[in-house]
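Practice problem: predict the structure.
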Amino acid sequence: MRCLKCGQKACLEIRRHHAAFCPEHLLEHLHKQVARAIKAYRMFTKEEKLLVAVSGGKDSLALWDILLSMGYQAHGLYIDLGIPGYSETSRQKARNFASAKKAVLHEISLREIYGVDVGYIARKNAKTFCSACGLVKRYIMNLAAASGGYDAIATGHNLDDEAAALLGNLLYWQTGYLRRQSPHMPAGQGLARKVKPLCRLGERETSAYCLLQGIDYVLEECPMSRGTHTLLYKELLNKLEASAPGTKDQFYLGFLRTGRSFFHNRIEEPILKPCTKCGQPTTDEVCGFCRQMSRAGLDPLALRAAIVDSVGSGV
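Answer:
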């Protein structure tokens, strides 16, 4: 297997591109794919300030490294959810990366603020862990972006993640999610702009990037994600990709080119208003986050105060 660019021994084959690359040209290829996504979907400019959601895993750390190497103003945000045997390790990986790169890392810890973890919140709300976790993370990211004056929130969702999410949304005809599924969700009605610059890269590519760049990341998946439908969807798509390379590209990028417009143009966006408790955007009088925290006997405003104190006072 030889590098498409120079003919030297390749370190990774990317079958959907009918190509293989040596270490030098693989890094070049991955940077170009990210730059292509940023440009194609008009995600952000060099003048804008980015908040990268960092988990300590390969995707978010690869994204942060790529953005920094491209000269973007990218700060990290780590959310410690208090997951036993996982959060402490992943938090340290994020800290180590930030220290090595001399980059800004903001940290928000549920246990330090409330003395409980997200599992406690999920149980008190009779919710699945992932549902409670997702609501907490989205709330923190949006408020942190506003507090710190960031222009956009960048997440490490890759091609595999997005294709799996699309499959799930189509199987259950989640038209609201299909309307919003995009690597660039513009700001509006109190919600920060959200972007996914890794949408053209697969998981194998971000793993290879971290290996070549010497980025130490947490190897384990979140233990609470085991058995989720998303993992099943990824497995099914991987089988299709193995027999027909390029399936994920055609499925997800094809949806963005032709399918998304059907849902985006025909389904109205809900009208949002400020939550009467915390002021964050919601469709109801009280937002889902405040309701969730109240059921757990926790003051949602304590988290707001901690975010403002950690990230900035620009709310």
